[in-house]
Amino acid sequence: MKNLTSLTIKEALAGLKKKDFSAVDLTEAHIKATEAARHLNCYILETFDIARKQAAASDARYAKGEARLLDGIPIAMKDLFCTEGVQTTAASNILKGFKPPYESTVSGNMFRDGAVMLGKANLDEFAMGSANITSAYGNVINPWKRKSDDKPLVPGGSSGGSAAAVAARIAMGATGTDTGGSIRQPASFCGISGIKPTYGRCSRFGIVAFASSLDQAGPFARSAEDCALLLQSMAGYDSKDSTSVNCPVPDYASTIAQGVKGLKVGVPKEYRIDGTNPEILKLWERGVEMLKDAGAEIVDVSLPYTKYALQTYYVIAPAECSSNLARYDGVRFGQRVEGDNLIDTYEKTRAAGFGKEVKRRILIGTYVLSAGYYDAYYNKARRVRKLIWQDFIEAYKKCDLLLTPTAPTAAFAIGENMQDPVTMYLNDVFTIPASMAGMPGMSVPVGLSADGLPLGLQLLGKPFDEATIFRAAQAIEKAANFTALPQLAQARAA
Amino acid sequence: MSIDKNTVKKVARLARIRISDDEVDVLSGELSKILAMIGQLNEVKTDGVEPMTSVIEMQMPEREDKVTDGGIPEKILANAPEQTAGFFVVPKVVE
Fold this sequence. Notes:
The complex is a heterodimer. Chain A is α/β, with parallel strands linked by helices. Helix content of chain A is about 40%, strand content about 15%. Chain A has a domain at about 5-265 and about 440-494: Amidase signature (AS) domain (Amidase signature (AS) enzymes, Alpha-Beta Complex), CATH 3.90.1300.10. Chain A has an eleven-stranded mixed β-sheet, sandwiched between helices. Chain A starts with 8 loop residues before the first helix and ends with a helix. Chain B has a domain at about 5-40: Histone, subunit A (Orthogonal Bundle). Chain B has a two-stranded antiparallel ribbon. In chain B, strand 1 (about 85) and strand 2 (about 85-90) form a beta hairpin.
């Protein structure tokens, strides 16, 4: 029998149904693998006791023939999803010890469907970062190593723990959230798949808020089909989130194998930015060829406002962040540092509780929203956002999907790209435009760099048309046949 | 456009984050760099473009104005750094 940790979710569900192994077996195999991979620091909190209970309950359902969509599948839960009675920190000191008295809708949906939670996955503090180096609980290490040296590499961010866990084969799938690329970029860095669905597809209820007009939940997995299964469970209308959209979630599995024959795939010229790594451009060309060979028609499209998306993002996201994070005042929950009076308590609490990147973003946000600058920065950015959105609407009159690179580079070492905040922000240059427009986007692993690191391509779709993205993702997956494993998982498979 | 030290201090006060003098120096440089990047938005002509509020064109849903939850003070207070007799406790506000 294949090592249980190397199965896809679909294979595992089939094995569970046939009783080749039990949900407890599957969970124990992943717990053991997790214990052997603790140096990656994927989890802020391991929840093995919960996992064992959930797995036993899954087995009971299998015995009765009442198995659910994800019954017995061990997953990592990004520690941004509130889990009832289980510490939820957003990787921040300010929330250390916080045990939510309620369950996020997305995690609740997955538990309803039988998912097993191995732990709360590490992330950038409040999901602000692109390398998982801003967590108060330490850096996450990418399970991949490059050929040229032995330096520890970043997994990308912000959902770094989730992506690293799935890549290291210590979780079968994981939840992430994506505000400007926090699912797609780490998926690319770790050689796995990850989708940010359309804004409004998954409920934000119970997800620690960063930038509410952008935040979306989505899954990581090792195949397009597995991502589709996980999203099927996570998505759906929720009256507890006023921006949740009441539109039916199609059965993704039923259409995923339809291929791309007859689909029009747009290639936006604005993503060919100066200085892009030639390796990335070559990979992109290969992706175009793959879709063409599979029967898609390739069309050139233009999204002229792309080059302003990053700037727009760094007004809107910090502005929303500064409002959302105002709630961390040391009064109702989280850590408090006592001061001489209330204001002093607020200031000391927030100084001690927030890390550097979070403070930077709160300050930028406070600045762009402050008297005299609101119109010049915040309203200006909201106007440009509209233009970016219109770009996509226009492009989708000519095509069904867009194909672009996911990230400008492969994973880098801890310490690289850290000269200044703006250099780090450039990591998300390809993922941010779709975030600004609320469009769904997915990263699929396509190949390895010359240095032996995974590289992904990004598929962007029309609003609420994740189904077509999954079809194209599977077509690329088949053509790319990406079977490379990170060194850590190779050792286990041997 | 750059953010000088006094502006950093003012914004930090507005954001209720205590920062040290050393931090003011560093932040002034970093925030100025970010602001220089953001400043490129001024190149974009946006006359007649409405500021975008939501990417989804939908009506904000409304519901009947009635209590749908409550009666759980122990849950609400469970994570409070300090509480007494069903209340959150804060330092004295009124002299």
